Structure to design on (193 residues):
C-alpha cells in the first residue's frame, strides 16, 4: 500500500512485486492521505496477510488519526512513515526551477505522540543498520493485533527517477518561447539564488 509522494516512486523503483494484487496504489498518484485508511481496509479484507502502508510524512498527517480504528479493532498492520520533514516530491520539483522550496516544509512532528494518541506501537529507524531488527519487531507486534507506526528517517537528497524526469518532460511539452522563458528564469535563480 503506498500513498502519493516520493516514497511511491521509490517503491515502484526498488520494491520487487512478485504477484498480482500485492501492491496497491492510488490510480493517479495524486491522493495524499489515502494509505492510512486503505491500509486498514486492506488488512480487514485480508486478515491472514501481512499488510504494510508506505506513507510520506505529509500524507500521513492528513489521515493518521484513523489508526484509532486499527487500535480499537486489533488490526495488526504496519504504517511506515517516510519522515524527512517536508513534502519531498513537491519540494524537489520546486527546487529545480525556483532554486528554493517555497511551501513544503512540515516542521517537527512527533510521530511517537501520534502513536500514543492512537493506541499504536511506535518504532523508529534512523539508519540502514536498524531496518531488519525493527521490521522483525514490527511484524511480531502486528501478529499480536497491534498497529505499528514505523518512523523511518529518510534522506531524499538523491532525487527519484520521477523527479529527475519531470523537468525534462515538462520542458518537452512547452512551446519554444515558453521553454526559453522557463530555462532563463531557472538559470537566473541559480545564479542569483
Amino acid at each position: 500500500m503506498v500513498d502519493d509522494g516520493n516514497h511511491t516512486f521509490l517503491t515502484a523503483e526498488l520494491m520487487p512485486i512478485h504477484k498480482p494484487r500485492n501492491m496497491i496504489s492510488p490510480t493517479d498518484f495524486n491522493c495524499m492521505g489515502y494509505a492510512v485508511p486503505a491500509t486498514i481496509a486492506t488488512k480487514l479484507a485480508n486478515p491472514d496477510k501481512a499488510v504494510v502502508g508506505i506513507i510520506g510524512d505529509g500524507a500521513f498527517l492528513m489521515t493518521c488519526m484513523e489508526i484509532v480504528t486499527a487500535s480499537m479493532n486489533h488490526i495488526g498492520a504496519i504504517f511506515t512513515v517516510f519522515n524527512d520533514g517536508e513534502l519531498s516530491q513537491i519540494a524537489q520539483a520546486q527546487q529545480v526551477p525556483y532554486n528554493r522550496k517555497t511551501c513544503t516544509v512540515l516542521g517537527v512532528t512527533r510521530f511517537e505522540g501520534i502513536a500514543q494518541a492512537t493506541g499504536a506501537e511506535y518504532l523508529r529507524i534512523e539508519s540502514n543498520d536498524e531496518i531488519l531488527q525493527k521490521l522483525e519487531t514490527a511484524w511480531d507486534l502486528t501478529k499480536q493485533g497491534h498497529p505499528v507506526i514505523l518512523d523511518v528517517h529518510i534522506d531524499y537528497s538523491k532525487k527519484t527517477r520521477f523527479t529527475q524526469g519531470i523537468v525534462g518532460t515538462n520542458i518537452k511539452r512547452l512551446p519554444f518561447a515558453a521553454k526559453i522563458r522557463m530555462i532563463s528564469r531557472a538559470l537566473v535563480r541559480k545564479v542569483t539564488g
Q: What stands out?
A: The chain has a mean pLDDT of 81. The chain has one domain: 6-166.
